C-alpha cells in the first residue's frame, strides 16, 4: 500500500482534532474567530491606520516629519 | 501640521495603551506558569503510567486552552497602537524594537501552531513521549516568547547598544547582544516569568481548594495542590531573588523611579525601607502635588541602602537630590539635564535646517558633532529632558508607584506563606479539613492577578514621563491626532475587552464546574 502523503497526514491531524473537539473548544474557536475579525477587519482598517505609512510616501518624508516633531515638541 | 501635544491627547493615549496592556497581561502570566505545571504533571504520567495523572493533565490543559484562546492575539492591538498613536516613538526606536518583536511573532506562531496543536489534538495520535515533548516545548516556547517582548521593554527602560542617526531620526542597533543581555532586560524577563509561575500556582491551588470545599474530585485536587505548592514555593523564592536584582538595577539606572517607589524625598546614607506607609492629602512641597507627607510610616533602618547598593550605609538619592543635584555624590541636577537636553535639541534643529537649506558642509559638521562620543555622553543622553521647563514635571505619580510596589511585594510574601501552609496541610492530609484555608486559597486567585498588574504599574508609571528613558518623553512620542479619536477607541476597547473577559470567565467557570471527564 502506498504510504500516506505527509501533507495529507498533517491535514488529517488538524481536521480530526477540530472534529473531535469538546463543546468548550468549539465555543473558544467562535470567540477567536469573532475576535480576529473585529481586530483585523474593523479595528485595523477603520481605527488603526499606520500614521506614518498612510500620511507620508517615502522613508525620507517620514524621517523629516519625525525630526520636525522632535525639534518642535518643546 | 506640527502642534504641541496637549495633555489630554497624551493622557488618553497613555490610558488606551495601559488598558490594552493590562488586559493582555491578564492572560499571559497564567499561560507562562500553567504550561510548566501541566508539563510536570504529564511527566509524572509518562514516568508512572498512572492514568490519574493523565486525567489531571488533561483537566488543567482544558483551562489553559480557554485562557490561551481568549488571550491570543490581544497583544497585537498594542502593535496597532504603536503605528497609530505612538508613531513618533515607533520611528525613533527603529529596528531595536522591531527586531525583538519580529522574533517573538515568528517564534510564537510556529511554537503555538505546532506544539499546542499536538498538545490538544495529539492524545492517542502520537506516542506518549512525543506528546510530552510537545507539552514541554509549548511551556518553554511561551516563556521564550516573553523574553523578546521584555527585551524590547527593557531597552525602553534602559536604552543601550544603539546610536541615534540624526539623518533618519532613528536609533540604530550597534550591538544586538548588549540589547539582549542588558541587565534590565534579563531582570525583567526573569521577574515577569517567575511572577507568572507564582500566579499559575495560586490559580491551581485555588481551583483545587474549591473542589475540596465541594467535596469533589478529591484525588485530582490533592495531587494538583501538591505539585502547585512545591512549584509555587520554589518560584516564589526565585521571584524574591529576581525582584531583589531588579531593585538594584533600578536603583542604578532609574533613580527617580527608585525614589518614587519608596516615597523617598530626601536622600540619606543608611536609608530606611518604608515597610508600611500611608500618604496624607497635604504636600511636603507646594510646587509638586505628588510629594505628599506620610501620615503613617513604619520604617526599617538601613535596609533600603542595602537593597540598592549591598551596603548598609550607602547613600540613596531622594527626589529632591535628583531635582537639585548633589555634588557630594556626583548627582547631576535635573535643572542641568534640562539645559543639556535643550542644547541637544537645538543642535538637532540646526542640523535639520542646514539639511533643508542644502548647506551640506554645515550639515555634515553638525552631524559629526551630534554623533561624537563626547556629545552623546554629555548632551544627547539627556535629549528628552530638553522638552521640559520645570524639573517637577519629571517626577512620576509617587503615591500610585509607592502603593503598587508595596501591594506587589506584600502579596508576594503572602503567597510564600500560602504555599508553605498548602504544602504542610497537603502532606499532613488535613487540607480538606481546614475550610478557612480553602476559602483563603480561592480568594488568593484574584489577589495574584492584582499583584501581577501592580508590578507592571510600578514598572510603567514609575518611569514616567519617559517612553524611552531620558531620551523620549510621552509628549514627543505621541502622534498628533485628535484626542477625541483616541477616546473613541479607548471606549471601544473597554467594551470589547469586558465582553471577552466575561466570555472567558463564563467558559472557565463552567468548565471548572463540569470538572475532569470521567
UniProtKB/TrEMBL annotation, chain A:
| Family annotation (InterPro entries) | DUF4492 (IPR027853)
Listed transmembrane segments: 28-47
Q: Which UniProt keywords are present, listed alphabetically?
A: Membrane, Transmembrane, Transmembrane helix
Q: Report the protein name in the record.
A: DUF4492 domain-containing protein
Automatic annotation (TrEMBL), chain B:
Gene Ontology CC: cytochrome complex; plasma membrane
One Pfam family of this chain: Cyt_bd_oxida_I
Origin: domain of life = Bacteria
Residues crossing the lipid bilayer are: 22-46, 58-78, 98-121, 133-156, 189-213, 225-241, 403-427, 439-459, 490-509
GO biological-process terms attached to the record:
aerobic electron transport chain
GO terms assigned for molecular function: electron transfer activity; heme binding; metal ion binding; oxidoreductase activity, acting on diphenols and related substances as donors, oxygen as acceptor
Chief subcellular location: membrane
Subcellular location(s): the record lists: Cell inner membrane
This protein's record includes keyword Nucleotide-binding: no
Membrane topology category:
Multi-pass membrane protein
Q: Has keyword Cell inner membrane?
A: yes
**What keywords is this UniProt entry annotated with?**
Cell inner membrane, Cell membrane, Electron transport, Heme, Iron, Membrane, Metal-binding, Transmembrane, Transmembrane helix, Transport
What PANTHER family has UniProt attached to this entry? CYTOCHROME BD-I UBIQUINOL OXIDASE SUBUNIT 1, CYTOCHROME D UBIQUINOL OXIDASE
**Family per record:** Belongs to the cytochrome ubiquinol oxidase subunit 1 family.
Provide the protein name.
Cytochrome ubiquinol oxidase subunit I
Amino acid at each position: 500500500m502506498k504510504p500516506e502523503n505527509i501533507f495529507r497526514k498533517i491535514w488529517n491531524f488538524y481536521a480530526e482534532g477540530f472534529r473531535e473537539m469538546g463543546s468548550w473548544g468549539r465555543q473558544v474557536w467562535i470567540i477567536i474567530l469573532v475576535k480576529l475579525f473585529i481586530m483585523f477587519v474593523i479595528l485595523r482598517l477603520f481605527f488603526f491606520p499606520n500614521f506614518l505609512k498612510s500620511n507620508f510616501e517615502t522613508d525620507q518624508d517620514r524621517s523629516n516629519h519625525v525630526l520636525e516633531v522632535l525639534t518642535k515638541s518643546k | 501640521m506640527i502642534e504641541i501635544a496637549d495633555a489630554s491627547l497624551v493622557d488618553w493615549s497613555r490610558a488606551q495603551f495601559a488598558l490594552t496592556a493590562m488586559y493582555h497581561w491578564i492572560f499571559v502570566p497564567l499561560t507562562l506558569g500553567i504550561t510548566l505545571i501541566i508539563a510536570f504533571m504529564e511527566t509524572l504520567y509518562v514516568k508512572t503510567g498512572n492514568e490519574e495523572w493523565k486525567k489531571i493533565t488533561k483537566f488543567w490543559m482544558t483551562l489553559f486552552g480557554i485562557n490561551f484562546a481568549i488571550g491570543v492575539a490581544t497583544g497585537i492591538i498594542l502593535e496597532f497602537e504603536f503605528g497609530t498613536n505612538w508613531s513618533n516613538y515607533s520611528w525613533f526606536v527603529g529596528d531595536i524594537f522591531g527586531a525583538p518583536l519580529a522574533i517573538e511573532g515568528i517564534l510564537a506562531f510556529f511554537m503555538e501552531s505546532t506544539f499546542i496543536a499536538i498538545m490538544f489534538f495529539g492524545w492517542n495520535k502520537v506516542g506518549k513521549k512525543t506528546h510530552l515533548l510537545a507539552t514541554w516545548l509549548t511551556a518553554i516556547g511561551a516563556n521564550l516568547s516573553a523574553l523578546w517582548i521584555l527585551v524590547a521593554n527593557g531597552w525602553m527602560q534602559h536604552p543601550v547598544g544603539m546610536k541615534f542617526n540624526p539623518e533618519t531620526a532613528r536609533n540604530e542597533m550597534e550591538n544586538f547582544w548588549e540589547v539582549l543581555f542588558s541587565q534590565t532586560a534579563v531582570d525583567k524577563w526573569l521577574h515577569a516569568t517567575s511572577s507568572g509561575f507564582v500566579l499559575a500556582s495560586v490559580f491551581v491551588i485555588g481551583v483545587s481548594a474549591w473542589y475540596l470545599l465541594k467535596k469533589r474530585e478529591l484525588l485530582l485536587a490533592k495531587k494538583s495542590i501538591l505539585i502547585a505548592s512545591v512549584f509555587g514555593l520554589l518560584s516564589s523564592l526565585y521571584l524574591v531573588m529576581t525582584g531583589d536584582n531588579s531593585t538594584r538595577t533600578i536603583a542604578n539606572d532609574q533613580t527617580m523611579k527608585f525614589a518614587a517607589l519608596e516615597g523617598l524625598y530626601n536622600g540619606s546614607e543608611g536609608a530606611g525601607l518604608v515597610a508600611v506607609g500611608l500618604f496624607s492629602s497635604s504636600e511636603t512641597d507646594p510646587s509638586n502635588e505628588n510629594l505628599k507627607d506620610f501620615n503613617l510610616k513604619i520604617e526599617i533602618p538601613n535596609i533600603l541602602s542595602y537593597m540598592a547598593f549591598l551596603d548598609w550605609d550607602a547613600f540613596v538619592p531622594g527626589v529632591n537630590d535628583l531635582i537639585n543635584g548633589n555634588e557630594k555624590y556626583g548627582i547631576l541636577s535635573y535643572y542641568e539635564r534640562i539645559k543639556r537636553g535643550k542644547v541637544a535639541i537645538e543642535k538637532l534643529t540646526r542640523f535639520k535646517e542646514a539639511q533643508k537649506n542644502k548647506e551640506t558642509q554645515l550639515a555634515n559638521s553638525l552631524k559629526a558633532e551630534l554623533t561624537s562620543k563626547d556629545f552623546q555622553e554629555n548632551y544627547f543622553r539627556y535629549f528628552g529632558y530638553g522638552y521640559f521647563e520645570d524639573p517637577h514635571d519629571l517626577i512620576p505619580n509617587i503615591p500610585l508607584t509607592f502603593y503598587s510596589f508595596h501591594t506587589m511585594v506584600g502579596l508576594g510574601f503572602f503567597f510564600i506563606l500560602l504555599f508553605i501552609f498548602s504544602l504542610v496541610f497537603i502532606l499532613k492530609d488535613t487540607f480538606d479539613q481546614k475550610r478557612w484555608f480553602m476559602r483563603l486559597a480561592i480568594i488568593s486567585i484574584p489577589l495574584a492577578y492584582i499583584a501581577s498588574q501592580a508590578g507592571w504599574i510600578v514598572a510603567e508609571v514609575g518611569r514616567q514621563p519617559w517612553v524611552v528613558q531620558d531620551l523620549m518623553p510621552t509628549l514627543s512620542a505621541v502622534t498628533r491626532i485628535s484626542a477625541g479619536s483616541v477616546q473613541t477607541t479607548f471606549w471601544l476597547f473597554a467594551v470589547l475587552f469586558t465582553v471577552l473577559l466575561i466570555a472567558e470567565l463564563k467558559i472557565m467557570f463552567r468548565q471548572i464546574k463540569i470538572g475532569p471527564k470521567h
